[in-house]
């Protein structure tokens, strides 16, 4: 899924940062870009993650959250703080995100909302905060199947 433009992605630029869906194969290249940019890289494996409780446990383990079992509101505050993980910027890689999406769509959607809010908050401070959630290749339309207008 990553192309030459994505590989030129400037992870240092908070204006470009955001929450993105990628394929599992993209995560390795993104991890390398994060390391090259010297940003804090956190990997979260959501394989078989099927509930809010399980998601919180995995977030706690990956991010060393000071609250061992945060509620959604607390998680949002923590994602906008990360004071216990000082870094010039952050890259969160979520593998197998479809497992959570398919098992608990409400938790998946809430996580996306909180990641979006955190990204905007970090952008306001000039610090890049990226979240990449890996979905199956089948979730991305092939260029062959898109109904594109004819070229002029």
Task: Characterise the protein shown here.
This protein is α/β, with parallel strands linked by helices. The chain has six helices and four strands. α4 runs parallel beside α6 and α5 packs across α6. The longest helix is centred in the C-terminal third of the chain and has 20 residues. The relative contact order is 0.23.
Ordered list of secondary-structure elements with their pairings:
Layout: H1 4-7, E1 19-23, H2 26-36, E2 40-45, H3 52-63, H4 72-79, E3 90-95, H5 97-103, H6 105-124, E4 129-135
Parallel strand pairs: 1-4, 2-3, 3-4
Helix pairs in contact: 4-6, 5-6
Shape: globular
Please list the strands of the largest sheet in the order they lie side by side.
Answer: 1-4-3-2
Tally of alpha and pi helices: 6
Alpha carbon gap, first and last residue: 26 Å
How does the helix and strand content classify structurally? Answer: alpha/beta
Which keywords apply here?
4 strands; four-stranded parallel beta sheet; 152 residues; 41% helix; globular; alpha/beta; 6 helices
């Amino acid at each position: 899924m990553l192309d030459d433009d994505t590989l030129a992605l400037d992870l240092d630029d908070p204006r470009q940062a955001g929450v993105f869906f990628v394929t599992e194969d993209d995560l390795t290249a993104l991890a390398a870009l994060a390391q090259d940019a010297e940003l804090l890289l956190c990997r979260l494996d959501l394989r078989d993650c099927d509930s809010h409780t399980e998601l919180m446990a995995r977030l706690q383990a990956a991010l060393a959250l000071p609250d061992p079992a945060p509620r959604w509101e607390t998680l949002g505050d923590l994602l906008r703080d990360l004071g216990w993980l000082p870094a010039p910027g952050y890259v969160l890689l979520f593998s197998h995100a479809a497992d959570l999406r398919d098992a608990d769509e409400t938790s998946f959607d809430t996580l996306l909302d909180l990641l979006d809010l955190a990204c905007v908050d970090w952008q306001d401070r000039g610090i890049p905060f990226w979240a990449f959630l890996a979905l199956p290749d089948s979730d991305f339309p092939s260029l062959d199947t898109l109904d594109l207008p004819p070229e002029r």
